[in-house]
Structures are given as structure tokens and as C-alpha cells.
Prior knowledge:
Elements: H1 2-6, H2 8-19, H3 27-33, H4 37-48, H5 54-66, H6 75-80, H7 85-108, H8 116-141, H9 143-167, H10 173-191
Helix pairs in contact: 3-4, 8-9, 8-10, 9-10
Transmembrane segments: 6-24, 115-138, 145-167, 173-192
Main location: membrane
Domain Major facilitator superfamily (MFS) profile: 1-193
Amino acid sequence: MWNVLLSFSGLVALIQLLFLPFFPESPSYLLLQKGDKAGCLKAMKQLWGEGNYHTEFDDMMKEKAITKGTKIMNVLEVLKEPSVYPQLRTMLLLLLSLQLCGLKIFETASLQENIIPYVSLGVAISELISIIFCSSIIDRFGRRILLWGGYLMMALILVLLETSLLLSDQFLWMRYCSVILIFLFIIAYGIGP
């Protein structure tokens, strides 16, 4: 019944969709995009409770003044902008490489087919761990260090993963090392890039 367990994320998304209309818009969106000052203050009170939010409101007003001359681009305009092509190519390459590395590596490691669904569940748990860990350390270390550390760890893990896949026919326990390295790769990816 692993497919029922994996569909749990769809249930959570459905619940979020049902309750989303009852939540206010983001205060910064209301102020910066829509220019609705009263709506911004109302959303702050609704989200954060009663209090004095003039400091946060003043910070958003300063941000609005700074970005006043900046044109906000939609998705098609961003895709037509040549200056973002290197970043888009890098993101696309990373996303495709993550999609291609999953089940094929598990099959290459010669894992039993009845174990692969549980390994896929472990991948999802690894993603959750990386999200929780990254959100708790990003303010302390900053994005730059996490990006560099994440890429370095990913490179090291990929070298070890390739080695473990090459040796998996000679040593049966290397197959499980491959699975652990995939989990570590996902955690390093989630913490870094």
C-alpha cells in the first residue's frame, strides 16, 4: 500500500487548496504589487494578531520606493530576456538531472523491486529533512556558504555514488551504500542549490 502513502502529499495539497481562500493575501504583495495600504495593514493584523506593525510597514514602504522604477516581468518576459539564459539553463539542467537519477539508479544498484517503493519513500523523507534543516540554518550561514557547501557535497557524493555502483556487483552491501548516498545527495541538494 505504498502508493496510498505516497498519495498523502496530494491529500495535503488538496486540504491547502480548500483552506487557501480563507487566508489573506501577503501583506508585502498587497502593498508592493497592488498599492493597497489599508489591505496591507488589515492582512498584517489578520496574520500576526493585534499590534503595532508600523516598523514593518515602513520597511515595506522603503522597499516600494526603491523598486518603484523597476518593471515587474511576467514569466514570458523573463523567458525572452537573454540575460537570464545562463541561470535558466543551470536550473533546467539541475532539475532534469534530479528527475533522471531516481529509479534508474535503484535499478542499476540491482535492488529488489519490492524494496524500490520504500526507497522512494526514503527519498521523500530526505527531501523533508533537507527542507527543515535548510530553513533552520540559512539565516545563520547565509545562502552563499550553503550553495558552495551543497555543490561541493553533491560532487563528492556523486563520485562516491559512481564508485559504489561500479562495485555493487562485487560487494552486495555496496547496493545499500548507493541508496544511502542518494539520500545524502538529495539532502545536500536541498540544503545547497
